[in-house]
Amino acid sequence: MPAPKNTFKTALCEGKLQLGLWQALTSPTTVEICGHAGYDWLLIDAEHAPNDLPLLVEQLRALKGSSSHAIVRPPIGEAWIIKQLLDIGAQTLLIPMVESGEQAKNLVRAMFYPPHGVRGVGAALARASGYNSIPDYLKTANDEVCLLLQIESRAGIEALDAITSTQGVDGVFIGPADLAADMGHLGNPGHPAVQAAVEDAIRRIVGHGKAAGVLTGDLGLARRYAEIGATFVGIGNDVTLLGNAARKLLADFGATAQG
Fold it and tell me: Which one is the CATH code of 7-256: 3.40.640.10, 3.20.20.60, 3.40.50.720, 3.40.30.10?
């Protein structure tokens, strides 16, 4: 029996648009609810959300049986945390703040078992192998992991071709918010210069034959990114959804007093 099939990776290889939602509330219940909403993927964030390994495990369990694929974003791209995330059962990782081809090569090596990489062989103890109940896990795991690299700085944009052309990288994700800040437009990812950089990056990524991704709460922009070739597009996050809905409910109640 092989490692579980990574349907998200397959969809990217086939060029199918995959819509996603960010998960930052660190709640297995929230993840479970969103897992029933119909998104192709949910990004469980451990970079800006206060997630740790036990919380991440519970959120992965909450998605078991869901049609939404789990992507995990660690706080940093280091081999030790990549090993832990793969062992708890994450198959797709989004690594933030990638700025060079050499960094990309090191991240690829961290994802794969030898001889293609340096991932430690401890799956017999791990959730990824069903606690050693998947006999062919070690032989098939490399085929089912998916590495997404996040570019969100001018240095990353300058190294985009080297990063994207790295063998073993499945997709490259552009982070407009941090890119805007690094370009001198903090808090304004919609600035024309930022948008021009994002669109150019998406086209270059697609030109290398790799999947391009992006996150935006602007649905018009999300559609635009998809039209120019982005295939994994995040269109919102759980924090904003809850906050907006809570404020709207209160405002709607207030409006009834004026009727």
Answer: 3.20.20.60
Burial tier of 31 (Cβ tally within 10 Å: 0-12, 13-18, 19+): buried
Give the pLDDT confidence score for residue 257 in this predicted structure. Answer: 85
Mind listing the pLDDT tens digit for each residue in 14-48?
999 999 999 999 999 999 999 999 999 999 999 99
Percent of the chain scoring above 90 in pLDDT: 98
CA distance 147 to 111: 8
The owner of tokens 């998960």 is 23
171, 148 Cβ separation under 8 angstroms: yes
Whether 48 sits among the annotated catalytic residues: the reply is yes
Tokens standing for residue 113: 């078992």
- Residue type present at position 31: V
**Pick the catalytic residue: 36, 48, 116, 185?**
48
Structure tokens, 29: 């219940």
Of 6, 3, 36, 47, nearest in space to 232 by CA: 6
Residue 233 parent element (H or E): strand 232-237
> What digits encode the pLDDT tens for the residues 179-206?
999 999 999 999 999 999 999 999 999 9
For residue 150, list its beta bridge partners. 173
3-state class (DSSP) for residue 2: coil
The CA–CA distances, whole Å, from 215 to 109, 133, 156, 174, 210 equal 26, 36, 17, 8, 17
56: tokens are 């991440």
